[in-house]
Amino acid sequence: MGRASVSYTNKDYESLRRELLARVPQLTDRWTDFNASDLGVVLLELFCGVGDMLAYYLDAQAAEAFLPTARQRQNVINLCKLIGYRLDGPVAATTTLRFSLAAPLAKDLLVPMGTVCRALLDDGHADFETAADGVLPHGALYVDVSARQGVRKSQTFTGTGTPWQRLELTGKNIAHSSVRVIIGGGEWSEVPHFQESGAESVHFVVETDGLDISAIRFADGRHGIAPATGMNIEVSWLETLGADGNLAPDLIRDILSPVTLDGIPVRLTVTNAIPATGGASRESIDFARAQAPAELRTLWKAVSKEDYQTLAVGFPGVAKARVLDTNDCAGIRYYNVHIAIAPEGGGIASPLLKQELTAFLEARKVITVEFELYDPVYRAIDIDADVYLWAGESEDMVRGRIEQGLADFFAFANMDFDQDIHFSDLVALLDGIRGVSHVHLHTPADDVILNCAEIPTLGQVQLRLRRAT
Predict the structure, then answer these.
(1) Other C-beta atoms lying within 10 Å of the C-beta of residue 151
(2) DSSP classification of residue 366
(3) Is 189 part of any domain?
(4) Same domain, 138 and 108
(5) In a domain, 8, yes or no
(6) Is 76 among the domain residues?
(7) Predicted model pTM
(8) How far is the C-alpha of 347 from the C-alpha of 375, rounded, in Å?
(9) Is residue 156 situated within a structural domain?
(10) Are 383 and 456 part of one and the same domain?
(11) Tell me: the pLDDT tens digits for 338-356?
């Protein structure tokens, strides 16, 4: 008797069970009891269950081979690496610290890079490290210095002299582009890859896997120097709070690192005059699925408006961007591009983030094109409404639900540049709140049309709650 075949499209339990039971009469005429209590049926159902699981894992494994369907972070990392795209780790918030004196000094005062300051929070603290040296000139009372959120950690290794040395770091939540490597008293440079490194290049690459374990890798001696046997390798990095490091102004008050002049400590005060913004958690695989092909289409060069848009949005710390040229505004000259950027967490981008983004785009733009970065305009949308409640509903609870619903609707993550606010959407939102019978929305009275550089945000909320009759 020939072997009975099962359709390869039948992969789920029910299909397999139905197909196998239909094949039984072709194999034997002695099996006539197909009740669930029959031992043969029990064994058949067990095989169907195993087949169902195997089919699922086979399909899942096949899906991991393609970027649009991959769900495991390590597989997304590997697929993106094939096209030269790297998922960002946590991004440290940046701000500007103002160091002030009570009275001017007779000499210039150096606030060294790496000076640590702290903000005390309700649930702990957030440390910030100055990103460059700051010089307070003699006779002046203050100096502004850019700073990045994080705690500096370090680890020491010994070189082996072998090609492709890989050193695993013990730190977690390592801030993007914060790793420093010092070998033989000289600082090495982080690069995304070794393709453009020469035999004498002192370069290293930072790799982070799907479990957030980071490691640094050195070259093979041909495309970058490999640390020699016995050489001391000092590695340091910032461990960041990510999005939790985005702080309001005037919260950073304590200086943890001493600042001295001729060996004598100088009494300084510090504060952040602007918010700390741009902090973000590690890049999600959903964002990588969309961003990696988009950046590949640019070939990592800024030529068209779409190129500028893609590269700006993909830059660590930038949440949203809108690019304008002469076709959008008659006031913009030819070969001139205006880019409005909003940092992670909302608000205004810090000078440090703008400086780093400017350098990134300058290396990729056409030489004849000039570009300028602009801050977004946050347009407040006021809400004024009469809300009618069903009988028996608590006014305080319904008011809380409405306020939370509006806050979620206007959340920074849900809004974008020039996103119009439709009257009907607001009415539907309020009318759908549990406990609300109907609403009369007075403000806004019509659709709110925004300009290109504007982002809508929630303004004043006036709610008059009444009982429905």
Answers:
(1) 19
(2) -
(3) yes
(4) yes
(5) no
(6) no
(7) 0.86
(8) 9
(9) yes
(10) yes
(11) 999 999 999 999 999 999 9
